[in-house]
Design brief:
Elements lengths: L2 H21 L13 H20 L6 H14 L6 E3 L1 H12 L1 E4 L2 E6 L2 E7 L4 H5 L6 E5 L7 H8 L6 E7 L7 E6 L1 E4 L3 E7 L2 E6 L6 H13 L7 E5 L8 H11 L4 E7 L6 E4 L11 E5 L6 H11 L4 E4 L7 E7 L5 E10 L15 E2 L32 H14 L1 H17 L14 H5 L2 H21 L1
Parallel strand pairs: 10-11, 11-14, 14-15, 15-18
Antiparallel strand pairs: 1-17, 2-8, 3-4, 4-5, 5-6, 6-7, 9-10, 12-13, 12-17, 16-17
């Protein structure tokens, strides 16, 4: 058998494996013969391209790397939230769901291309050792981290093992080495405080497997204070979402009956309606929910449900606008397929896909005492993402027709875009989020959105008393 024939057979085996990766469900394989003729032709073209790349590309290529990239490109062409998850990405997703991970316990970001500490998590090895906000991590076990993911990977590890983190600290000449023993770090999705006697504040950072349990504990603590709870501020800003089940159960805490959410997929198995149930504890106090452009997915479900049932007042800026549901199906070799399977709708039947939750009271964020407000309008949202889903399936045709009209008015939009960019330059970007450290009333009092929410609750209580009397 000549070399060309061997190469072609090997490439076809690769294509079959790639197709198998996409079609493996609960441990079974689909026969390639089940594919229709068009699919077969497409696979033949894929095989030809793969062969040409392997033979003629300027540098040697690894077919094992090319195939996953091709699969990823195909899936990314569907929508921004579907993806082929490599083992490390699947592990990150599982950590977010489980609510804990082995590591040292710090929030980090990339600032001026340097890994920088936002805040150590209370009670963790990093916190106890004295790692501080704004410390710059220059080495981990003597190696410079390539990027944020690399830094996270190097700092995580089995409980009880050690890692040496080298940091630069403002005001200190020489680098500081911290030898830290890794531990199990709980991912706290709930932070709360009594902002004033009778008025509680709860921040839900994301929706993990234990969010509802922790939320109920926080509520019970606030409700058991000497002064009965008269109002609650629920902060969903910068909450990127999480588990659908947790968003449903959080909403159910404040609803006695009616629809919480409906999801509609192409297949009946992916369509469902979630209903509220009567609670043993009746909670009738007013609620203010604060949202912004970082409020997405599961957090939008909570805000939309309580807004539609008129159970909460929404304050802030329009949310992200992710109105779709994804499932994660395991594949071979530690891979998984995250695939969009349905759109979701709020109790009133509205889709927030690429639209977002609009606040009842629009108020942009700024730090009290600082006249330069943070412009939430500069945040990237669902509608800005390539290949984003339309709110309804039949809107795609209308959108295509609108695109041709939009092309004609593009010149006039250039000036608007320039104005928007200028506004973003003038507006002050987020400093490190005060909420990531220990919550204090001083920190909350510097937040104009939180303070305005409190003023509304206080006004409601005064007005209610006057009506009764």
């Amino acid at each position: 058998m000549d070399h060309k024939k061997c190469c072609h057979i090997r490439l076809w085996i690769t294509v079959i494996i790639a197709a198998g990766l996409l079609t493996i469900g609960a441990g079974s394989y689909r026969d390639l013969s089940a594919y229709n003729e068009e699919t077969y032709k497409g696979l033949k073209i894929f095989s030809d391209v793969l062969e040409m790349i392997e033979k003629n590309y300027v540098d040697p290529v690894d077919t094992k790397e090319l195939v996953p990239k091709a699969i990823q490109g195909m899936i990314r062409g569907l929508d921004p939230h579907s993806a082929l998850l490599p083992p490390e990405a699947l592990e990150d997703l599982q950590i977010d769901s489980e609510g804990e991970f082995p590591g040292i316990g710090i929030h980090i970001t990339l600032q001026n291309d340097i890994v920088t500490v936002i805040s150590p998590i209370e009670g963790t090895p990093a916190f106890k050792a004295g790692v501080k906000a704004r410390d710059k991590i220059i080495k981990i076990d003597g190696v410079i981290p390539k990027d944020l993911r690399d830094a996270v990977s190097k700092m995580r590890g089995p409980k009880g093992t050690t890692v040496v983190v080298t940091i630069l600290r403002e005001g200190v000449t020489d680098p500081i080495d911290f030898t830290l023993v890794r531990d199990i770090i709980p991912v706290k999705s709930i932070k709360y405080i009594s902002i004033k006697p009778g008025y509680g504040y709860i921040w839900i950072t994301n929706f993990t497997g234990n969010t509802t349990d922790d939320f109920l504990k926080a509520l019970e603590k606030l409700e058991s204070d000497p002064v009965p709870l008269k109002g609650l501020i629920l902060d969903l800003r910068d909450n990127g979402g999480g588990l659908l089940k947790q968003a449903i159960s959080i909403s159910d805490v404040f609803l006695e009956k009616g629809k919480i959410l409906s999801i509609e997929g192409r297949h009946k198995k992916n369509s469902r309606v979630f209903m509220a149930h009567p609670d043993k504890v009746k909670r009738s106090y007013p609620i203010i929910i604060i949202i912004n452009g970082g409020t997405a997915s599961a957090s939008e479900i909570v805000a939309g449900a309580l807004q539609d049932h008129k159970r909460a007042l929404i304050l802030g800026t329009t949310s992200f606008g992710k109105g779709s549901v994804q499932s994660v199906e395991p594949l071979r070799d530690g891979y998984a397929l995250k695939l969009t399977i349905a759109r979701y709708y709020t109790p009133s039947g509205r889709s927030i896909q690429a639209k977002g939750i609009e606040p009842d009271i629009e108020l942009r964020h700024r730090t009290i005492g600082d006249e330069s407000s943070y412009d939430d309008g500069g945040m990237l949202k669902e509608k800005d993402l390539k290949n984003h889903l339309d709110a309804n399936p039949d809107e795609k045709k209308k959108a295509m027709e609108a695109d041709s009209k939009e092309e004609k008015s593009k010149d006039s939009e250039i000036n608007k875009d320039k104005d928007k960019k200028d506004l973003r330059k003038k507006s002050k970007t987020h400093d490190f989020d005060y909420r990531l450290g220990p919550l204090t009333t001083e920190g909350l009092k510097s937040d104009n959105q939180v303070m305005h929410a409190l003023e509304i609750l206080l006004s409601y209580e005064i007005f209610k008393d006057r009506l009764i009397n």
